[in-house]
């Protein structure tokens, strides 16, 4: 893939209600639920900072004041808040609202609850290095369904030899699941509906144009969707702790 300038801005999705994580999210936003002693969102922001991201726009809705107060002390990456207190806009609507803060250049989109154990190299570095905005509208980090922790779905995508993606339409299963991190050019959102909508709509339109690609995650992706999955992820991180020392981006 052709090397282009690496993005330095991220949009972090942190506005969701976290209903599957109840009762923990009755009093906290899901991004502040702790994994291995650290809020989920700090796992994401620390990884982004280690990969050279200098600005992060974070959208807020559920228990927004608590999340804003927590983020106020962060220095790197520099934080800006996209306010969704009045209405939850879902992933696509949230990205459209944040675009004036994001700016005109390509940017990372990172779910605040996306966590993984690294393989031999930084997966974010791999993703950033593979970005080619001339032929891509989006580039996704994909985890193999067979080796992901806490995931029991049928997979999301097929990937061809060039990395181009197609959906699991009609097939019983697909080998890859979206790991919650992608890169996008703002044109991905051209013609997007106003108000609430899912990024899946924009991705599907770009897939139809042949402009969505993927990178395989090396390591173990952990689907931290509910309290039981959180316990399983804690146990897996404890098992991995001795091997993680000295690994690139050692914090999961």
Provide structural commentary.
The protein is an alpha/beta fold. The chain has one domain: Spore Coat Polysaccharide Biosynthesis Protein SpsA, Chain A. Helices cover 27% and strands 25% of the residues. It contains six helices and 13 strands. The protein has a seven-stranded mixed beta sheet. Helix 2 (64-71) links the parallel strand 4 and strand 5 (78-83). Helix 3 crosses helix 5. The longest helix has 18 residues, at 227-244. It starts with 8 loop residues before the first strand and ends in an 8-residue tail after the last helix. The mean pLDDT is 91.
Q: Concise description?
A:
The protein has 252 residues and is of the alpha/beta class.
Mean pLDDT over the residues: 91
Give the SSE order as H and E letters: EEEHEHEHEEHEEEEHEEH
What is the count of distinct domains?
A: 1
Proportion of residues in extended strands: 25-35%
The total strand number stands at 13
Helix content: 25-40%
Cα(first) to Cα(last) distance is 27 Å
The CATH architecture can be given as: Alpha-Beta Complex
Q: What is the CATH level 1 assignment? A: Alpha Beta
Using the coordinates shown, work out and report the CATH topology. Spore Coat Polysaccharide Biosynthesis Protein SpsA, Chain A
* Order of strands across the main sheet: 5-4-1-6-11-8-12
Taking Cα atoms only, what radius of gyration do you get, to the nearest Å?
Answer: 17 Å
Largest sheet: 7 strands, mixed
Could you name the key traits of this structure?
globular; 25% strand; Spore Coat Polysaccharide Biosynthesis Protein SpsA, Chain A; 252 residues; 13 strands; seven-stranded mixed sheet; two-stranded antiparallel sheet; alpha/beta
